[in-house]
Amino acid sequence: MAQLITYQNFDTVSALDFSYDNETKGALDVLKWAYSHYGEGNLVYACSFGIEGIVLIDLISKVNETARIVFLDTELHFAETYKLIDQVKEKYPQLVIELNKPDLSLEEQAHTYGDELWKSDPNKCCELRKVIPLNSVLSGTAAWLSGLRREQSETRKHTQFINKDHRFQSVKICPLIHWTWKDIWRYAHKNNLPYNILHDHGYPSIGCKTCTAPVFNSGDLRSGRWTGQNKIECGLHQ
Prior knowledge:
Layout: H1 27-38, E1 43-46, H2 51-63, E2 68-72, H3 79-91, E3 96-100, H4 106-113, H5 117-120, H6 122-138, E4 143-145, E5 162-165, E6 170-173, H7 181-190
Parallel strand pairs: 1-2, 1-4, 2-3, 4-6
Antiparallel strand pairs: 5-6
Helix pairs in contact: 1-2, 2-7
């Protein structure tokens, strides 16, 4: 049996070679390997339920129809996002979809750190409501899946299929790295996938409603996140 690839032994494992000259640009091959190598107990998909997430969920369902998917519920998401999650649960009833909330309620957070922390200290807000909860989720697993694409931003353009994740001391697997924005939407429409209606109203990247704005006439798909702040990531992907 092949040695399980973990954060601790990542650098000693021979590089994995996945071809991306196929219909899913390597995504299905990577997913098949991931679930075969780690099994359900050591692998989780942390999904934001943006359009990339919906595509990845559909691909995952073809490989493992009972896969575990976690949504970091900051309690600050758009109503449209929660509606979409219900639609996905209905479409893929066998997938295990969990909504993971922070230990601190919004009221407790306001009492400790002040009202509207996302305005005064967005990094702290993301840490409390996303980073710490995901760290808790990943504490019992060896690897996690992410929908990152190289095209999304400068900070993501060197992402590999299999990555050593220093933030969470885990292995981060990114099957969609070679997909373009057009590839994502072509697949979604071809397969009649549900998606967040906010994508049709100028929101290419959708996070918390307090920190996400529509984007018009911009080549940066993430420019609507934390507008006016010196911030481009929530802290999960660093």
